Amino acid sequence: MLVNVGRFSCLALLVAGLSGCGQAGNEMKTGHGNTGQACDPAALKPLLDDYFEASKALYPMWATAIGDHRFNDQFSDGLSDQWLAKRHQLNETSLARAQSLDVSCWPQSQQLALDEFIRLRQMNLVGETFPGRFLPLDQFNNPYSSLIQYASGNAAQPFETVADFDNFLARAKSFRGWVDLAIERMNEGIDSNVTLPQVLALRAIEQIRRTLQIPKSESPLWGALPSALTTQIWTDNQRQQIRASFSEAIDDNIVPGLTRLADYLEHDYLPQTRASDGYWGLPNGRLWYKHKVNVFADDSRSVEQIHQLGLAEVARIHSEMRKVGEQLEIGSDLAAIFAAMTSDDDQYFNEGSELVAAYEGIKQRINPLLDDYFASQPAQDYEIHQVPAYRAANEAGASYLMGSRDGSRPGIFYINTHNLRAQPKWGMVTLSLHEASPGHHFQIATKLSLPVLSDYQNYQSNGAFEEGWALYAEHLGIEMGLFTDPYDYFGKLSDELLRAMRLVVDTGLHDKGWSREQAIQYMVDSSPLAKSDIVAEVERYMAWPGQAVSYKLGEQTILELRAQAEQQLGEQFDIREFHDVLLRNGSVSLPTLRKQVALWLQQKQSGSE
After folding, report:
1. CB–CB of 123/294 below 8 Å?
2. Fewest beta carbons within 10 Å, which of 129, 350, 457, 493?
3. Which letter does DSSP use for residue 254 in this model?
4. Rounded distance, CA 462 to CA 593, Å?
5. Is there a single domain that holds both residue 277 and residue 316?
6. Does residue 493 form part of some domain?
7. What are the start-end ranges of the E strands in 194-255?
8. Residue 568 is assigned to a structural domain of this protein
9. Last residue of some domain: 260, 275, 292?
10. Residue 340: which pLDDT band, with cuts at 50, 70 and 90?
11. How confident is the model at residue 222 (pLDDT cuts 50, 70, 90)?
12. Taking Cα atoms as reference points, which of 87, 376, 142 lies closest to residue 257?
């Protein structure tokens, strides 16, 4: 069933935390029915498997990315009436099937996994009630960026046989069809007053034009061909075939498709873009935004409460920063503190190798402390690497790459040494805690070691939990005694400040009517971040509503659950056991995490654990 632009179901209102649907609220119950079939824990696996297989057929580019090459000749649709109908049917039938299962004999972990599956299908159905198809691209979220990456030969698309090149040609031809469909949907969006803010359309145009202007010898669009030719042994006939196939894919399909898209955006779409910078300016935009927040964080707080939480957290962190300024004899003026901390040459390294070596030292400092906080630790280690020079200019300051599931490759904590003035010494301890251990590496390596019923579970993650855990790991650094140095503590506060500002700015942009300029100025006045970084941050929030609030809401949820456990258990509370409870079911949504902890507390207090 396809939904008209103006139709918003009771399910949408309920998930957004609003009322007015009467008895329709029964739709949102996550309890599981009993249709007379026998209770069978084995019923979960085929449910997850079937959904996983159907999802790969719906999202062929994603299937390639996770190593299923059956769909390498297809480009993601995501927009046609036929595709939307298939997605709806998959969500609707999967939800009905899940809710019909009798779980009375299931182990707790499987019941929680089913709850999580049901929540995601409900969220997907709510999402269908909003006209997302009219916004098929922006500079952060678009399918053509993945296609360009695949063409480079440095991604998941294989180029090892003639058939591989033929598959890529077919995918490139499908891309041209997607461009026509995207333009059609954006024209419908113009008619329905559902368009991008002007600046995001400009950024997408710049992104595409910049790609098209790169010389062929340096362009990622042509990267796969010379790479394949130099690493494979081909006959002359095969070389001729793959050159012709790849040239047709790029010259006759991808380049014309990107050119047509950029021309349309510049000449037809740009004059019709909306004046508002946030979702509040769209039809039913505030309700749509709350749904976006729920997708990422599913928090019971209203948008206004989230905004006020952000303001309170910013004020608290600023107060702590003033104390650091006084301790360092800079004074209590925030602007002076920010200027002093960012201009002190002694707080920067001169060589990338020195920065990496210093992170190695922090790793050796943190690792011995983990035993006091975790009863079990992942066997998989992590390594610290510099971001390769060829991609450093366009990479984040730091990132984490998960290790292999079989343990043969460790996790990698990447440090970008391209601009050492963006890597102050005072930010190192908190960054290591966040990206490595006990942050992202520790949590993800633990997740990789957990048994799963279905491959579906290997690819499920929740950003509010994962980023919330990483922020909580920074908080643990205080208890570990890692922030006794005021410079290091300032670094911890600086990172936390960014996440607190996101609560204010994201809700401000999308619910309170803030402009892009107002959001930028708020962050300039409130933080030591460079203005260029702030502009990129704000435009990211404009393109990705709701995602930015997930970090702090995830951390706040974990801290609240810990306080609840400490209060209820008293002397029985064991921090090591609590952390194991948080991590033992992988990356779950915040509602499932709350249920997970509540069940553990029940068992602890009843003595049944």
Report:
1. yes
2. 350
3. I
4. 11
5. no
6. yes
7. none
8. no
9. 292
10. very high
11. very high
12. 142
Question: What pLDDT was estimated at residue 407?
Answer: 79
Cα 209–chain centre separation: 26
Which residue range is the domain that position 488 belongs to? Answer: 295-550
pLDDT(120) > 70: yes
Q: Are residues 200 and 310 in the same domain?
A: no
**H or E stretch including 124?**
helix 108-128
- End position of a domain, from candidates 292, 317, 350: 292
Contact indicator for 531, 482 with CB cutoff of 8 Å: no
Overall average pLDDT of the 535-542 stretch: 93
| CA 32 to mean position of chain CA atoms | 29
- The average pLDDT across 375-382 equals 93
Residue 412 DSSP SS3: strand
CB 264 within 8 A of CB 136: no
Verify that 259 and 340 share a domain, yes or no: no
Specify the higher pLDDT residue, 419 or 358: 358
Q: What is the pTM of this model?
A: 0.90
Select the more confidently predicted residue: 298 or 286: 286
Kind of pairing between the strands at 411-415 and 382-386: parallel
Structural tokens at position 105: 């004999």
Centroid of chain to Cα 323:
34
Residue 349 lies in a domain: yes
Overall number of domains in the chain: 2
Give me the phi and psi of 339, to 5 degrees please. -65, -45
Residues 285 and 312 in one domain: no
Q: Find the angle CA(412)-CA(414)-CA(417) to the nearest 5 degrees.
A: 155
Q: Are residues 229 and 148 in the same domain?
A: yes
Rounded CA-CA distance 141/607 in Å is: 49
Average pLDDT estimate for 230-250:
93
155 within domain boundaries: yes
Calpha distance 523→16 (Å, rounded) = 28
| Chain CA centroid to CA 237, Å | 44
Read off the pLDDT of each residue in 300-312 and give the average, rounded to a whole number: 95
Distance CA 229, CA 239 (A): 8
Distance CA(512)–CA(526), nearest Å, equals: 19
- 277 and 304 inside one domain: no
- Considering the domain architecture, whether residues 98 and 28 belong to the same structural domain is answered as yes
Please say if the pLDDT value at position 545 is more than 70.
yes
Cis before 378? omega within 30: no
Candidates 192, 186, 329, 327; CA nearest to 261 is 186
The pLDDT of residue 394? 63
323 lies in the same domain as 273: no
Q: Sheet of 411-415: strands edge to edge?
A: 382-386, 411-415, 398-401
User: Would you state the pLDDT for residue 35?
Assistant: 54
CA 601 – CA 78 distance, rounded (Å): 43
Give the residue-averaged pLDDT of 410-428. 92
